[in-house]
Amino acid sequence: MAIDLNGKPIAITGASSGIGAATAVACARAGMAVAIAARRKDKLDDLVERIEKHGGRAIAAELDVRDADACRAFIELCVSRFGSIHAVYANAGYGEEIAMHAMSDQGLRDMFEVNFFGSMNVVRPALEHMLAATQPEAGLRGHVLFCSSCVARLALPYYGAYSATKAAQHHVGRAMKLELEPQGIAVTTVHPIGTRTEFFQQVEVRSGHSKLLSHTPDAFLQRPDYVANLTVRCLRRPRAELWPGASGTFVRFGMSVLTLLPWLADLSLRGMVDRRLKNYAAREARGEAS
Ligand SMILES: NC(=O)c1ccc[n+]([C@@H]2O[C@H](COP(=O)([O-])OP(=O)(O)OC[C@H]3O[C@@H](n4cnc5c(N)ncnc54)[C@H](OP(=O)(O)O)[C@@H]3O)[C@@H](O)[C@H]2O)c1
User: Fold this and answer.
1) Nearest CA to 242 among 231, 228, 258?
2) What's the rounded Cα separation, in Å, for the pair 142 and 180?
3) Contact, 212 vs 283, CB < 8 A?
4) Closest CA relative to residue 236, chosen from 126, 122, 130, 87
5) Cα of 15 from ligand 1 centre, angstroms
6) DSSP state letter for 222
7) What totals of helices (H) and strands (E) does the chain contain, helices first?
8) Alpha carbons 118 and 204: distance in angstroms, whole number
9) Tens-digit pLDDT profile for the chain (290 aa)?
């Protein structure tokens, strides 16, 4: 039986843009009360206004997910304003296109702080409330979602650190699913493929150059609202992993096969490296290389 989401609160990090913002809108449309967080408060306030204009309930908190106390305060805000918490979506994250050996220790730690520990910072306090709640006869005590990625299964060259953070979220999510299932809590890892968000703009800012690695053909890019609607469907009927749509299923299958055949994975990814080296050489020839 599908879970009735009407009136149920969800807390979402990284909701000032992209997948998080689209998920907040989709959840509000499904009748959920939405608590949203990120660093850009102006964007969050606009989103709250948009949701309220359509009759929904929303609150916003400005935070950096690296700050565990701020994450706890965000969950407390959700519970005090909406009375409980049904779901938490650890979605905030970023990537960088950089060769692994060129990445500083600090850069690597920073990425884990946001993508991995930032997820745990919001999931832990949410779970405390979920575990303290009485389990309804039919339904769940709560639902934890991690926004991982398709690269959780297979690392892309120049995205080694990012892939590692996404794999860490995935592994932890899969373990937590089995640990929390007996207590009436669902855990889902969400695995978007290339999605049209600010993600790649942020990659360019952080990498200090325009994108050199071409990994997702435009035709394969998904819209954030498409991913968001499937996430709402997953909140109604929880599942362990969400790979959005037919393309997501295709990528999931492809990556699973490639993990069994590392030589085939190398063969297909080597082309990506060659193209990037060519792009870099062309940029160098134009005098644009840093
Ligand atoms: N787009 C893709 O192709 C793709 C594919 C697979 C997985 N994903 C995953 O999807 C998730 C959402 O990304 P997106 O595609 O929607 O990109 P996006 O539009 O850049 O959104 C990223 C969100 O994370 C927030 N964020 C970043 N660092 C933060 C921090 N330190 N503290 C709090 N919030 C922070 C940003 O808000 P502020 O800047 O306002 O803080 C923003 O709201 C990420 O976890 C990403 O890894 C994306």
Assistant:
1) 231
2) 10
3) yes
4) 87
5) 8
6) B
7) 10, 7
8) 22
9) 899 999 999 999 999 999 999 999 999 999 999 999 999 999 999 999 999 999 999 999 999 999 999 999 999 999 999 999 999 999 999 999 999 999 999 999 999 999 999 999 999 999 999 999 988 877 899 999 999 999 999 999 999 999 999 999 999 999 999 999 999 999 999 999 999 999 999 998 888 777 666 667 777 799 999 999 999 999 999 999 999 999 999 999 999 999 999 999 999 899 888 888 888 788 878 777 65
Task: Establish whether residue 117 lines the binding site of ligand 1, counting it when its CB lies within 6 angstroms of any ligand atom.
Answer: no
What ligand 1 atom has the least distance to the C-alpha of 92? 24
- Fold topology of 9-251: Rossmann fold (3.40.50)
Instruction: Provide the β-strand partners of residue 146.
Output: 90, 189
Residue 91 beta carbon below 6 angstroms from any ligand 1 atom: yes
Q: Which atom of ligand 1 is nearest to the CA of 20?
A: 16
Scan for tokens 């049904």, then name that residue. 86
Cβ of residue 149 lying under 6 Å from some atom of ligand 1 = yes
Q: What does the domain layout of the chain look like in residue ranges?
A: 9-251
CA-wise closest residue to 111 among 127, 97, 125, 126: 97
Torsion of CA 56, 62, 67, 73, to 10 degrees: -50
Q: Which atom of ligand 1 approaches the CA of 200 most closely?
A: 1
281 CA from centroid of ligand 1 (Å): 30
Q: How far apart are the first and last CA of the chain?
A: 56
